[in-house]
Each structure stands twice: as C-alpha cells, then as structure tokens.
Amino acid sequence: MTSLLDGLDDLLPQLHDTYRDLHANPELSGQEHRTAALAAAGLRERGYEVTENVGRTGVVGVLRNGDGPVVLLRADMDGLPLREDTGLPHASTNGVMHACGHDVHITCALGAADLLARHRDAWSGTLLIVLQPAEEIGAGARWMLDDGFLDRFPRPDVCLGQHVGPLPAGVVTVRPGTMMAAADTFTVRLFGRAGHGSTPERTIDPIVMAASVVLRLQTVVSREVGAHEQAVVTVGSLHAGEAANVIPDEAELKVNVRSFDPLVRQRVLDAVRRVVLAEARASGAEREPEIVPLNAFPLTVNDTGATERVVTALREHGRVLRPMRFPLAGSEDFGLFGTEAGCPSVYWFVGGADHALFSPEDLERLDDGVLPAGVASNHNTRFAPVLDPTIRDGVVNLVVAAAEWLSRK
Ligand SMILES: [Zn+2]
Ligand SMILES: [Zn+2]
C-alpha cells in the first residue's frame, strides 16, 4: 500500500499550484470550460484516455490496466455565484467562488490519478476518473449519465467520492446508509383573476390563495410525517403583485423539500401537490396551478459493506475517523452514478479547516455539528480550506479507498 503513495511528497507542490490556479479561476455550474480543459490536460499528461464534453463540460479519464474491478473516482468542478471574501493571495476576483471546495476535489482526484498511474505495476483493473460539472444545481451527474456515460465507458464496480468540509483538516467523517438528504425544489404558480382592489368579489385573489398554501404546507411535516421520520418543507420565495389597490393575476412560490427516505420523500411530495391543488380549488381558481421542478437531488446512500471497507482501510492508514451521528440535510448528485450503474457507492467528508481554530472543547463537540467562531463552512464567502494537509489527505483517501478494490499484483 505504502508504495502506491510513493512520490506524493514530490507531487504536492505541483498539486498546490493546480489548486491555487483552480481556486483563482472558478466557473459557474455548466460553464466549467477552463476547469474541464485543465483537468483533461492533467489526466492526458498522466497517461489516461480522456474524453471531454461528456454531459456538457464533463471529463472522463480512463486507465485500463489489465483484469480487475472498475473503480470510479468522482470529483465535481463548479463554483458558486459568490464574491470571495477570504483575502487569500489566490482569491477569485471574477464574482464566482469555489466556496464549496470543488477545487480541492479536482486537485485530489488529479493527485490520486497521478499516483495510481505512476504505480500501475502494483495493481490491476480499470480506473475511471470522473470530473463532473454542475453539482450545485443538481444537474451534472444526470447530464453525464444521459450522455451515454454507462455505455461509453467501462461500467464501474464501485463509485467513490469525497467532499471537503469545515471539520479540522485530517479528520474524515462518514456513515453507512443514508448520508445526505434528497432535495426537491420546484416553482408553484397559482392563477387567480386580476382586478381592482376595491372589488375583490370580481376577482380570484392569488395572494390569499398563496397565503393559504404557505400555511397549509406547514402541516405536511407536522401532521403527515411520523415522529420517527424526518423531512423539511420550506417555502423560500413568494412573489405576487405590485400595487396595494390591484389584485394580481398570479402568485409564484418556490418550495424546497428535504427528505431522508424514498417513501417519506414521495409522501411529502404528494402531500405538497395535493395541498396546492386543493387550495387553488378552494379559492375557486379557474386554472390549475403549475408545479414545475427546478432541480432534484437524489438521496446519498452509502453501501454498508463498501463503507466498512473504506473505513477500515482509512483507519489502518492512520486516518482519524469521526462517526456521523445524523445524515446531513445538504444534498449531492454523486449517488446517481452508483444507482444507475447498479453498484455500491461510498461518499465521505474530509476536514479542511485549520486545526489551530479548534479548542479541545470544540473537538469534543464536533459530532454535534457545532463550529467554532473562526471556522467558515461551505458556501460561506470566507470558506478557505488550508492547503496542507487537506490536499495531501484528500489524495491519500482516494488512493487508499481505490486500492481496496483494485487487484494487487
Ligand atoms: Zn455546494
Ligand atoms: Zn459541494
């Protein structure tokens, strides 16, 4: 095993440069052209067969190295529409920010790709390095799969991925089973009939209709989801009308649903739909509401056996593993690869925060999800993982996990 990591120390300065370059030049979801080109060049240099524009800007690198399992390592590539506020020398100035650390993911995937190619005499099998676009909008994995990913490339036997988070650098956290929530976001348009504010009897008021929908939706979780189950229903946006004396034509809501179980998810989505349709009918609406999906993230579910293998391998390799007590309410589209390929997947979190920012008490309370004051979490304009040891650890995790499946020579 150690031999697969030989050369990592020499490789790190180059990986740090790659990271700083990616960090300074983030791109929005679906527009990762420069990022994809950089990743593709990096994989080609390392001897991979590279295919670009898989699902728009996706990149796939394949290393066929004899008989054995096919191991998929996935990294996502997109930044967020945020103005960076880290003050770092390599901070982005283009109004887009790698505030979710996808630059770390790309860099670590390239590092792992490098070491595994360099030491290909020590293993056999096939490596599939997947650089996925548009994770933040829950679209990129779908795009790649819809672009024939499973037919065009070797079918994976296991899918592995990792995400950097605000834990102390060096710490890995993972759980078997449900790891992250499913998320469904949609727009609801409620149609009324416009008119003068003085004559509501001649109108169908979409604002009152919308207000009823919002209140009634609060009962979905409290009255239709059991005490042992979990879900969140949030109306995050509500727009209707302009003037106080005008009853508008329509109202628009944006609704976000989080769930941790496929059956609960379906029940909640059905309930939301039922409430919307029934409230429109209760208001006498002449036109059925429109419910248009904006995005849908699947559940992230870690295969129990495969997770155990990764955990054991990482622990043997000196990694500090913290149990995750609850699944995260955040969401990911990584799970689609394993689901569609019909193979197990494992997704874990790796710490990227400066250890010095955590007091001994903070470290005690890590499992409660409490963050010390100076630590910015993902999607914060001050999110700034420390380069070292985050990049090194991320590379080691991927190599150690992949080696669990690749046949040894
Ligand atoms: Zn994110
Ligand atoms: Zn992310």
In short:
This protein is of the alpha+beta class and 409 residues long. The chain contains 11 helices and 17 strands.
* CATH class type of the largest domain: Alpha Beta
Hetero groups in this structure are: zinc ion
CATH architecture of the largest domain: 3-Layer(aba) Sandwich
Largest sheet: 9 strands, mixed
| Mean pLDDT over all positions | 96
Gyration radius over CA: 24 Å
SSE layout and pairing:
Layout (H helix, E strand, L loop, with lengths): L7 H17 L8 H13 L3 E6 L3 E8 L4 E7 L25 H17 L4 E10 L7 H7 L2 H4 L5 E11 L2 E4 L2 E4 L1 E10 L3 E2 L9 H19 L6 E10 L5 E2 L2 E10 L2 H21 L7 E8 L2 E3 L1 H13 L3 E4 L11 H7 L3 E9 L6 H5 L22 H19 L1 E2 L1
Parallel strand pairs: 3-4, 3-5, 5-16, 6-15
Antiparallel strand pairs: 1-2, 2-4, 4-17, 6-16, 7-14, 8-12, 8-13, 9-11, 10-12
Helix pairs in contact: 1-3, 3-11, 6-7, 8-11
One zinc ion binds next to loops.
Verbal overview:
- The protein is α+β, with helices and mostly antiparallel strands.
- The chain has 2 domains: 2-180 and 299-408, 3-Layer(aba) Sandwich (Aminopeptidase); 182-297, Alpha-Beta Plaits.
- Helix content is 35%, strand content 27%.
- It has helices spanning 8-24, 33-45, 102-118, 140-146, 149-152, 206-224, 262-282, 304-316, 335-341, 360-364, 387-405, and strands spanning 49-54, 58-65, 70-76, 123-132, 158-168, 171-174, 177-180, 182-191, 195-196, 231-240, 246-247, 250-259, 290-297, 300-302, 320-323, 345-353, 407-408.
- The strands form 4 sheets. Strands 1, 2, 3, 4, 5, 6, 15, 16 and 17 form a 9-stranded mixed sheet that branches.
- Strand 3 (70-76), helix 3 (102-118) and strand 4 (123-132) form a beta-alpha-beta unit.
- Helix 1 (8-24) packs antiparallel against helix 3 (102-118), helix 3 packs across helix 11 and helix 8 crosses helix 11 (387-405).
- The radius of gyration is 24 Å and the shape is elongated.
- 46% of the residues are buried.
- The mean pLDDT is 96.
